[in-house]
Amino acid sequence: MKRTLGIFGLLACLPATAVLADEGGISFWLPGQFGALAAVPTEPGWSLPLIYYHAKVSEDSNTAIPRGGRTTLGLDATADLVYALPTYTFADPFLGAQAAISVAVASGRDEASVDATITGPRGRTFSGGLDDTLWGTSDVYLLGTMKWNHGVHNFMAYSMGNIPVGAYDPDRLVNLGLGHASFDAGGGYTYFDKVNEFSAVAGVTYNWENTDIDYQNGIDSHLDMSASHFFTAQTHAGLVGYFYNQVTGDSGSGTTQGSFKSRVAGIGPQVGHFFKVGEQLWYINLKGYHEFDAKNRPDGWNVWLSLAIPLSGKG
Fold this sequence. Notes:
- By secondary structure, this protein is mainly beta.
- 2% of the residues lie in helices and 56% in strands.
- The chain has one helix spanning 2-8; strands at residues 45-58, 64-67, 70-84, 87-89, 98-119, 130-137, 140-150, 153-163, 182-192, 196-207, 220-230, 235-246, 263-277, 280-295, 299-310.
- The chain has a 15-stranded antiparallel β-sheet that branches.
- The protein is globular.
C-alpha cells in the first residue's frame, strides 16, 4: 500500500493554465488540480505525471467581460491541453516532511468565439462576432510541496509560481500564457485509512500586473476537495469538488468593468485504477466537474484524464 500511495500522490501536482487571459475571469489557479490523497507522501525519486485536460465553458451573451484588452459579449470556449510534470521527490526528510519539486508545462489548443466585441485592444472598436484559435505552449510552472504523515492523518504545505513565457498576445482573444507572473501558496489535509479517503487543499493567489494592458487581477482563494472509497486494492471511486472565489477586486487602468470579482464552484465523479507495467505500478484516473454558481467567470464542464508514471524503484 505504501507504493500505491506513492504513485497516487504524484497526481496532485497540476499547475494552472488559463483557458483565456486572466482578466477574463480565468485565474492562474485551475480549480480541481488537487484531488484524492493530495497530502499523502509519495515514493522518493523521479516520476512523470501526464494529464489531459478538456474544458468547455461559456458566458451569458448579455454580460460584458474584459478580456485581453477587449470588452466582449457571449463567449464560447474550448480547451484541449496536455500537461507534463517531471517531479523529483527527496528521500531525506526536511523539517520532518517529505519534500518534492515539479516543473510543468502544457501544450495544446485553445479556441473561442464571442457574439460581439465592444471595445478592442489599444482603444479600437469592433462590432459583430469574432473567432480565435491558438495552438501553443503555456507558461512554465514551478511547484514545491512538503508532506507530513501521522498514521491516518496527512498534512501538506505547497507553493507554486509561473515564469510567463507561454504563448501570449494582448491582441488575441485566446492565450495559453498569462502575460504576467503569479504566486500561489496553501496547505492541505488527507484522511486515509486504506479504505476511505478525504482530501481538502486550500490556497491563495497573488497576481502581478499585466503591463501589456495595465491590468492586475485581484487576490484569489480556492478550495479543492475529494472523497473516495477503495472497492478493491486497485480500484477506487468517489466525488470531487472545488470552490474558487476572488477576494479582492481587479485594478489598473485596463479595468473597464470595475473590480470584477469572480467565483465558481464545481462537483463531479472520479474513478481510479492501478495496473502493472513490467515491475512498476502505474495509476490512471478519470474525473469530471460540472460548474455552477459562476459570477464574472465562464462556467461549463471539464474532464481530466491523468496517468502517473514512476521512473524510480519497483512496483
